[in-house]
Design brief:
This protein is 43% helix and 19% strand. It is of the alpha/beta class. Helix 2 packs across helix 7. It is globular and about 75 Å long. The relative contact order is 0.14.
Length: 414
């Protein structure tokens, strides 16, 4: 089938899925989880083909880390589906309700979008996450992963579709689009009327392309040029631990810190500590002139570095003379994802929280906590960096729309 035929099939499946009970959806999710574990060897074998091809094509090790699957990562994917099954079903939740003065009963209730399209890059775990969260929220999923992960995604979707069918739900609830040609992306972006919402998840170029070219409504996600600002009133022991964790706990993800800003009043004490720790962790520091004076290994930062989402063992570091300077830097180069301040000053943290425009603001905590699982939402479909509909980690409620149900007793309007 071509993309439009798949979208039409997804629309039919979405109608059936919208009427499914929580028990029916949860049964499918648990069966999907069990089958992933049972077929882990087959999925890993398919993934090895993708990893081998990626290395032959010169893809960076940071990107290969995102691409690679192991039995442990597959088990984590299955656990994510089980966690989804344990979460409340958002469909039918009453967002608000009242009885109007004329006696009409008004309720705003959550309903599925219908058909959700996902365009994402080389992270095959997203395939299971997206399929699961769409199913739980009553949506059919059209998944368009990258060509670099096509074998992995095909193996995963094959397992998931069989599990969904065995749970007596329509298999076309989950469909993988052809990733061997760019035409499938173009067709998906033009499938307005068949696809209700499109979610791009990946690098800046992918998201920019989808936002600018899609006729289907888009929820923008993911680009994370995240900053850690170490204030003059910071506890430097906390600042060191937070900076190293934010950069190195896993550097190929969107909530990893890409830039460090250090107040001039603590730079002389803090920079030698943090530069040494980052160096020991294998991180390359791209620093301004003041930072370069503290370590020979510092690479001179360019203007481009301040706006770069590295997704690798690199970080840009600058000294700032004030909190206002830090805020100005973040406003200029931040992407609205996650920003962090380390400070013991209530005044400074309040000004920072009020002054940064981001989906999440961390106070004395690592940027790595901006995550649906860490927030207690279960699996997420992405981090929304826009302001309409949803912002921040997109869990189950964010994969729904609403409708108004108005109940009367023969009411007519005067």
């Amino acid at each position: 089938m071509n993309v439009l035929e798949q979208a039409a099939a997804a629309r039919i499946a979405a109608i059936d899925l919208a009427g499914a009970t929580r028990a029916e959806k949860d049964r499918a999710l648990l069966l999907m989880a069990d089958r992933l574990v049972e077929r882990a060897d087959d999925i890993v074998a398919a993934n090895e083909v993708d990893v081998r091809n990626a290395r032959e094509n010169g893809i960076t090790e940071a990107m290969i880390d995102r691409l690679a699957l192991t039995p442990a990562r597959i088990a984590a994917m299955a656990d994510g589906l089980r966690q989804l099954a344990a979460l409340p079903d958002p469909i039918g939740d009453v967002v608000r309700g009242s009885t109007l003065a004329n006696g009409l009963e008004l309720r705003q209730v959550r309903v599925p979008f219908g058909v959700v399209g996902m365009i994402y890059e080389g992270r095959p775990n997203v395939t299971a996450d997206a399929a699961g969260i769409c199913l739980k929220s009553g949506n059919a999923a059209l998944l368009r992963g990258s060509g670099s992960a096509f074998s992995s995604n095909a193996a995963i979707v094959s397992v998931l579709r069989k599990a969904v069918a065995d749970a007596d739900l329509p298999a076309d609830t989950i469909q993988l689009l052809d990733a061997t040609t760019r035409d499938s992306v173009k067709e998906l972006m033009r499938a307005r009327g068949l696809v209700d919402v499109l979610i791009p998840r990946g690098g800046a170029d992918l998201i920019k392309t989808v936002v600018e070219q899609s006729t289907v409504p888009v929820i923008e996600t993911g680009v994370g040029n995240c900053h850690v600002y170490v204030d003059a009133a910071a506890d430097l022991e906390k600042a060191l631990a937070i900076t190293v964790n934010a950069k190195t706990q896993r550097n190929s993800v969107c909530n990893a810190a890409e830039s460090l800003l250090v107040h001039a009043e603590v730079a002389e004490t803090f920079l030698p500590l943090v530069l040494s720790a980052l160096g020991d962790a294998g991180v390359t520091v791209h620093g301004d002139a003041r930072v370069a004076g503290y370590a020979d290994e510092v690479v001179a930062a360019t203007e481009e570095d301040w706006g770069t989402e590295y997704l690798s063992a690199d970080i840009s570091v600058a000294v700032v003379d004030s909190l206002d300077d830090a805020l100005d830097h973040i406003r200029r180069f931040g992407t609205g994802h996650t920003e962090a301040i380390v400070s013991e000053s209530v005044t400074a943290t309040r000004r920072f929280v009020a002054g940064v425009d981001a989906a999440a603001v961390m106070v004395n905590a690592s940027t790595r906590f901006t995550d649906g699982g860490e927030f207690g939402f279960g699996a997420e479909i992405g981090i929304s960096t826009q302001k309409l509909h949803a912002r921040g980690p997109m869990g189950l409620p964010e994969l729904t729309s609403t409708k108004y149900v108005v109940t009367g007793n023969g009411h007519i309007r005067d």
